[in-house]
Every structure is written in structure tokens, then in C-alpha cells.
Amino acid sequence: MRIFLVLVILLSYVNFSFGFQEISSDVTDQIRAKLDYERPGENIIVAGKELRSGAKILAFYADRNFEEIWSENGVLLELAYEMRFEIRQSKYDGFNPEDYNLSLIEAYFKTFETNKASQAENEPGDLASLDLLLTNSFFHLSEHLHQGKVDPSQLKGQWGIPRKPLTMDYSKLLKTAIVEKDIRRNLEKLYPNFTIYKKSREVLRALDEQTKGELPEWKKIKVDKSIKVGDTHSSIPALRERLAFWGYLNDTLQKDSKVYDSLMAESVQAFQKKNGMESDGILGKNTVSALNFSPADLMGKAAVNLERLRWLPDTIQNLDLIVVNIANFQLDYLSKLDTLFSSKVIVGKEYTASPIFSAQMSYIVFSPYWNIPNSITRKEIIPAVRRNSNYLYQKNMEVITSSGRVVDPSTINWSSKSFPYLIRQKPGENNSLGLVKFMFPNRYSVYIHDTPTRSLFDREVRAMSHGCIRLQNPAKFAQILLSHDPTWTPEKIDLAMHRRSEQIVNLPQKIPVVILYLTFWADSKGEAHFRPDIYNRDPEVLDLLRK
Q1: Are 398 and 436 in a shared domain?
Q2: Which of 107, 381, 410, 544 is 20 to 30 Å apart from 292, CA to CA?
Q3: Residue 257 sits in the same domain as residue 339
Q4: Residue 256: its pLDDT value, please?
């Protein structure tokens, strides 16, 4: 009886050992050897490439007993082909597929396809290497899709919106993708939750397909003066060709003519309107500059702005949201994805650029004082007073102490280097803030306000302020913000805007304000919109994306 029990135990052990060997494969053993899990902390090198996501990879494979992911019984799974496809498609997210070792991965695929054609077996070592490369690419691409490739805090240009926090477990995401056998749908979970991201991505795809991957570079055209209908210019054929490329013109008969005809002018108007310019049909400096952007240039501009969208936290997706796009010179007030209000705005000059940040709008100030910043006081106001002693009176300004006591300007030594006072402009029609300002406290001391110089809104490029946002129709904006209270009629708002003293009105709830800088986006219809890079910030981001 005892001998029988010993035999049973021995047989069970043998069966268990054989079972374990069946689970383990040559590829699994190769993965285990390549990861060299007995020496954690060292860089993992596969086919001469350092795996950027080495720590994640080691933990992921250890958790699955180093079993291969992308092949089975020595043959690549459909999942591997899908992952390769997603790496190729990453260019439509503005990435460089070579960041994810595409060429090396393609070489392994070619080897396996050659083996298949000659009915040769795939080498376990090659399968293991490709397995690790594909997994590394999944983790690396996931990180870039989720948070962006570039760290905005390292940019020279100011970006004050906190970067999206790391909330996604990429290992868990890959496990889900393996179980569901669906890479695409799981990577899409990492996209920014903005409709314009997917729509913008589609624009890149369409442009790539239109040019068959061969993005042409265009020679820069310069014009000395504006070209109007009936004028002749040597650059007209090239400009006509570009309008035809973008689908604005189908005029093959006149393609070599140097005369700027009315048909071409109509296409120029359509181009100007779509690109945020005054649609006057005149070929001026700004219009020609926009037509100088080649498909390659625009592909780069789109890549930069897709990256900016990836930086944005999901927290700005509130039911109510005020968005200012500096590059578009426009403010939009959105509620439950509907646009309640849109208006032209004036933004900061290049050397006093409007910052990029988010804050909460909490109150409105009717008939505001303008508390002049110290920098403007010293650079502009004091020199003006030295030249003209009546300057403060003419500008409806007054001098006050830090406690708010008004000081007689004639008692001040304006030639002194010391100036322990503040200057403010009193409420009125000529106040630099206009008749109302909208407050969202922030460290930049930037807010949205009215302006007495309304003629500036007719200009195409409206980068003319000291950094604050000037609004074209503030009375209408105030009416919408106060619509919860029916007593705030247009008449009451107008009276509040023409007081001799400030009136502060708190909003019933704080509304997020996001000040952005987007020089490209696609709307809900998939229409592409490009804007001038007024602060010259695109090249820095593009350079970092391409490194």
C-alpha cells in the first residue's frame, strides 16, 4: 500500500513537471533571458535599442510568467499587426513613428513574412525581441497620447495650465487590450476628451492621403504691395496653384495668367474667411503669408496643436466654460457644449503677451477704476506727467497712497526716483478698462474688460494690449452671465456701466476661464482652421516633438 502511494506521488510530480514545460515556450524562455530579471535596475537592451519603458516591461512580463504577448506557437497574432498599424498611424497624432522603433519592428515583420513564404520557422529569439519592442512601443505611445511628449513647463513661452496628471495605468490598459483583442479602442481612451482632437487628427490623415505621403515644400512668395482685382503680378500663377491645391479654385484655363481676375478673388475671399482674416479679396501681406504655408508646414502646425490639446487637464471640461483662444482673437462662452456667446477680443502684444492659464471667474465690476500697474506707471505715466503737468487731469487719473488716500499731484516731486504712490484712472467713458471688467483672480493680474478704443476690433491682427483681454461686446456678455437674475435687464446693466463709482456683482457660481494658444484646430464638421503664430511659439514645440 505504501509503495503504491509513493508511485502515485511520483507520477503526479512528473505530470506536473511536464505540464509546466508545456506552458513554458522557447519564446517565453528567451523573453525571460532578455529581461535578465535577476539584475533589476539596469537598462534593458533589445536589438541594440534601449527600452524606454524598461521598468514597466519587467513588471508586466513578470506578472504573466514572461509569456509572450504578440505571438502564439511561433506565429505572429493579429494583435501584433494591429500594434504595428497604430505605430504607423501615430504620425496623425503629430508624433514621429521612429520614436517607437518602427523601422526595427518593420524589419522583424519582414523577416517573419519571408520565413512564412519559405515555410521556415521563426526564431524564438527574434519573436522575443519583437514581443518586447511592441510592448515597449505600447507603453511609450500610451504615455505620449495621455500626457504629451513635450513637458510644457520646460518651454520658453509661458504655459500656466497644470499638466494633465498621470491617472492611467498603462499596464492595466494593455491587459485589457490583450483580453479584448483591440489595440485601437484602448489607445483611444487616452485621447483628450475634446471633439476637436479626433477631428484635427482626421485633417492630418486627409492631408497625408491627398499628398500620398509626399508633403511638398513651397517657395516663399513676397509681395511689395497689395494686389487687387485687375492687377498683374508674376506670383499670381503660383498663388492660383496653391488655392487650387487647397480646393478653393478650379481654374485650369487661366492657370498661367498673371492677371488677378475676379474668379480668383472669390476664392481668395473664401480662403481669408476660413483662416480668420478680413475677407476683402485683396492679396495683402497677411493673405500671401498664409498662402506660403506648404502642406509640410501645416502638418507641423497641426502636430504642435495636437500636443497642446494633450496637455490640457480633463477638469476644464465643465458644463460652463469660457474659452479665449489668443491666436484666434476670440472668446467663446460654452454651456453644455452649446456656444452661448462669441466675441472678438484684443490680446497682448508680443512683448506683453497674454499668458496661458486657467482660473475661475467669480465677479463683475461695473464702472471700474483702472489701478495702473507699477511697470506702466514708471515707463509711461510718470514720463508723460513730466512732459505735461495736466496729463493726469486730462486722463481722469488720480494719485493715491497704498491706503487709498487721494494725493494732490502738485505736491509730488515727479523728478524724484522714488515714487511711493499708486495711480488709478477713475470710472468713465475714457477709462482704459472701459465700462466693465470680468474678474477671475489669477497670479498674472489678467482679466477680461471693455475698451474705449472700439475701432481696433476692425483690425485683422489684434495683438495690442498689455496682456489683458479686451472684449468687443461686454454689455451682452454681462447680460448672459447675469441671466439667472431677471432684474438685470439691458437697461439696468447700462446704468451700472455709467456710474461714477464701482459696483461689484458676484456671480452665483464660479465659471472656469481657460486662456489658450491654438494656431490650428478642426471644428465639429472636420473643417480645418489655421491661425498666425503671433507669439512665434510653434517652432519651439515642433522642434521638441521632432527630437
Answers
A1: yes
A2: 544
A3: no
A4: 79
CA–CA dist 322, 334 (Å, integer) = 6
Residue range(s) defining the domain that contains residue 508: 314-546
Find residue 318's DSSP bridge partners: none
Provide the 10 A C-beta neighbour count for residue 326. 25
Give the Cα separation of 86 and 182 in Å (integer): 11
Residue 317, pLDDT score: 64
> Cα separation of 301 and 538, whole Å?
7
User: 468 and 449 in contact (C-beta within 8 Å)?
Assistant: yes
Beta bridge partners of 339: 334
Which cell is 64 given? 504573466
Q: How does the average pLDDT of the chain come out, rounded?
A: 89
Sort 47 into a burial class: Cβ within 10 Å, 0-12 / 13-18 / 19+. middle
pTM, whole model, 2 decimals?
0.86
17 has pLDDT over 80: no
What is d(CA 547, CA 256) in angstroms, rounded to the nearest whole number? 41
pLDDT digits (tens, 9 = 90+) for 238-272: 999 899 888 898 866 677 789 999 999 999 999 99
Give per-residue pLDDT as tens, 39-64: 555 678 888 888 888 889 999 999 99
**Above 50 in pLDDT, residue 371?**
yes
Residue 385 and residue 409 in contact, taking contact as beta carbons nearer than 8 Å: yes
| C-alpha cell at position 309 | 490639446
Check residue 164 and report its DSSP letter: P
Those residues whose C-beta lies under 8 Å from the C-beta of residue 285, and which sit 6 or more positions away, are 223, 226
d(CA 547, CA 396): 54
Single residue among 190, 215, 249 that ends a domain in this structure: 190
Judge contact between 237 and 258, C-beta under 8 A: yes
CATH of the domain at 268: 1.10.101
388 in the same domain as 516 = yes
For the chain, what's the residue count? Answer: 547
In CATH, what number is assigned to the domain containing residue 375? Answer: 2.40.440.10
Residue 275 has a pLDDT of 87
Phi, psi of 513 (to 5 degrees): -115, 125
Give burial (CB, 10 Å; 0-12/13-18/19+) of 337: exposed
Instruction: For residue 316, name the pLDDT band (cuts at 50, 70, 90).
Output: low
- Alpha-carbon distance 325 to 319, whole Å? 18
Using alpha carbons, select from 319, 268, 314, 313 the residue that is nearest to residue 291: 268
Residue 511 neighbours by CB under 8 Å, 6+ apart: 318, 320, 321, 322, 360, 361, 481
Q: What pLDDT, on a 0 to 100 scale, did the predictor assign at position 41?
A: 59
- DSSP strand pairing (320-325 vs 503-516): parallel
Q: Which helix (H) or strand (E) holds 363?
A: strand 357-366
